[in-house]
Specification:
about 650 residues; mainly alpha; Serine Threonine Protein Phosphatase 5, Tetratricopeptide repeat; 24 helices; about 0% strand; TPR-like_helical_dom_sf; Clr5 domain-containing protein
């Protein structure tokens, strides 16, 4: 068992950066991979190799340095020249029902609630005090995943016994639709809740025909909420569930929110931090509402806002943004999910760029501990459940094969009858799942998809290239590439057809997607030992990327790295090396020899092997692309 670094917990936001952490970023965080992450964004199973000086920096309580940077007043959080205002006695209990109405019933954000209370009720408190009080009252706007699973299980058990069920939790009522929706978006914990969650009220409704809508539910009468209680009847057609898909945010479209983000950047550049903060928060809240908390666009805005707070010397606010987005990743995907791991690395990168190398080290160390503990728990559970799953699988195998074939046939018919982009994307997602389990029925779906894409190559170039690339993967997995030689042999012709119909533009994301799909196609051809054709495809991708994006653009550099990784995995180093040399020259020109990507490429040429992260050096911001469009090798070399 690896031994984590012992350290006292650091309360982010309570102190200024400690002296001694202002050295260059590459010296502050001694190799991320050495602290629990591997080259694919996962957690390594080896001890964390850290330097004692980093540990000592965490343990020693030093006097914080003087503040630097422009003065910044955050509404409701920062006043005058002090870091945080002192609040007198506030009548929280007297305003409890009002706060419940604003925050829980009417759904105002914390910032909106604070503003209303300050301007209309002369109630001025910090965000930290609000959160502490709401936590004390056990108010929750969002239903935790493990609680949602518990509610669904309990309602199912009671329904089997002929009982109807109502739930009250976190200061409000929850419908079964809301519980099912949340449970479907979160992974059920291995050790599910067996006891009633704190603050949960489960009861049988007295008058199930008089159902209160969740949107209009009033305060509850329990340990966490004031007021009178009313009940919700849990059934398949309970009231109107909370809307999950939205077309606007407070009347503003996605374009309006993009304009707000641009305005925030302008305000920040023109040294108007209060207006910048307001615009950033509006853009972030809106993207969470319209997309999701873990959508790439949303997360990038969160990183940008955190960086903005740091530049205004508001470290606590920056940490709060990162902590919130981290919790949302873990709640939505789990800590061992690839998307969450990538986010954790990006948080460490940000901390390190802020000269907080020790904080980044402690953050990754803690993340490693949590992930390792959860993985071990899951492994034990998998062993226990293996027998049950095997029996269930054998019993369902015959029916599953028939139903899967029917399902794929239905999707093929839908795509043929109405080949919309959404239908085709859904079909490709389903196809990849069936490729993974070696289902031969997926071949017809992929062929039908490619045929429809060729009828509209200008719009469906990405999907058409992906369909052929996935078909090649399917044949390779089934070891029938020789029987389908023509499919591999004509891949270059297919590439030319779709490329000729593509409008290439360095500013559009579609050009990036066409490049990635073309890389997948080339990888399939190379794996089938059609070396000359694969080389031609990769050279065409090289030429097109240089023409469209520029020879030293970040996207072009990562295309070079991607091709190198494909050759590194499926062929030999001598064929991969020229691509890494080309990437190294471009990275050195674009970012200089001190950048992490440049140094990693240089080291790979010495060691004859490239990895994202190693003990010697690590990519910095340019790898993760906190802002802008980036190309990163995805499943090309990781499948």
């Amino acid at each position: 068992m690896p031994t984590p670094i012992p350290h006292d917990p650091i309360e982010f936001g309570e102190h200024q950066d400690m002296p001694g952490l202002g050295q260059p970023a590459q010296a502050s965080l001694h190799g991320i991979a050495a602290h629990g992450f591997n080259a694919e964004g996962g957690f390594q199973d080896h001890p964390i190799q850290s330097i004692e000086a980093a540990h000592d920096a965490v343990m020693v309580d030093l006097e914080p340095p003087p503040m630097s940077g422009p003065a910044f007043q955050r509404p409701g959080a920062i006043g005058g020249g002090s870091r945080r205002p002192r609040h007198g006695d506030l009548d929280w209990d007297g305003n409890r029902q009002l706060l419940h109405r604003l925050y829980i019933q009417e759904g105002h954000t914390l910032t909106e609630t604070m503003k209303i209370m300050k301007e209309q009720h002369d109630f001025d408190a910090s965000a930290k005090l609000y959160k502490e009080k709401f936590k004390f009252w056990r108010w929750q706007k969002n239903l935790p995943g493990e609680v949602a699973h518990w509610m669904v299980d309990r309602a199912t058990l009671r329904e089997a016994g002929g009982k109807q069920t109502e739930f009250e939790f976190g200061g409000q009522k929850w419908s079964i639709e809301q519980a099912v929706s949340t449970a479907s978006r979160t992974k059920k914990a291995v050790q599910a809740l067996v006891q009633t969650p704190a603050g949960m009220i489960v009861a049988t409704p007295i008058n199930p025909n008089n159902v209160a809508s969740p949107a209009g539910a009033g305060p509850l009468n329990n340990a966490g909420s004031p007021g009178a209680s009313s009940v919700i009847f849990i059934s398949a057609n309970t009231g109107s569930a909370k809307k999950l898909l939205h077309l606007n945010f407070k009347g503003k479209s996605r374009e309006d929110l993009a304009a707000a983000l641009l305005a925030a950047r302008d305000y920040a550049q023109n040294e108007d931090p209060i207006a910048a903060e307001s615009a950033y928060i509006e853009a972030l809240d809106g993207h969470e509402h319209l997309l999701s908390s873990t959508n790439e666009a949303t997360v990038k805005i969160a990183y940008e806002l955190a960086d903005f707070y740091t530049r205004q010397d508001c470290r606590a606010e920056a940490d709060e943004i990162l902590e919130n987005i981290t919790q949302k990743h873990i709640s939505a995907h789990g800590i061992n999910d690839r998307k969450t791991k990538q986010h954790l690395l990006q948080v460490a990168e940000l901390l390190n760029s802020w000269n907080r190398g020790t904080d980044a080290l402690a953050f990754l160390n803690h993340a490693w501990e949590v992930a390792d503990a959860q993985q071990r728990t899951e492994d034990v559970s998998k062993t226990i459940e293996a027998g049950t799953r095997k029996r269930r699988k054998n019993a369902q195998k015959a029916n599953a094969e028939a139903s899967d074939s029917e399902r794929l046939g239905k999707i093929s018919q839908d795509i043929t009858g109405n080949p919309t982009t959404a239908r085709i994307n859904f079909g490709l997602d389903v196809a990849r799942l069936h490729i993974a389990v070696n289902d031969s029925a997926v071949e017809a779906l992929l062929k039908a998809t490619e045929t429809q894409c060729l009828r509209n190559p200008r719009v469906l170039a990405v999907q058409g290239l992906k369909a052929r690339a996935d078909l090649l993967k399917h044949y390779l997995k089934q070891e029938t590439a020789t029987d389908h030689h023509d499919t591999f042999w004509t891949a270059d012709d297919l590439l030319t057809t779709f490329w000729e119909s593509t409008t290439w533009d360095r500013e559009t994301f579609k050009s990036h997607e066409v490049m990635e799909a073309s890389l997948e196609l080339g990888a399939g051809v190379l794996r089938a030992s059609l070396f000359t054709k694969a080389k031609w495809i990769f050279r065409e991708i090289d030429r097109k990327a240089s023409d469209v994006f520029g020879s030293d653009d970040e996207r072009t550099i990562w295309i070079f790295i991607s091709i190198g990784l494909i050759y590194q995995r499926y062929r030999m180093w001598s064929e991969a090396r020229p691509w890494f040399e080309q990437a190294y020259a471009a990275a050195d020109s674009a970012w200089g020899d001190s950048d992490g990507v440049t140094r990693a490429l240089e080291k790979s040429l010495e060691k004859r092997h490239f990895s994202y992260l190693n003990d010697e050096t690590r990519p910095f911001q340019s790898v993760f692309g906190v802002t802008g469009i980036t190309i990163r090798p995805t499943r090309l070399h990781l499948e």
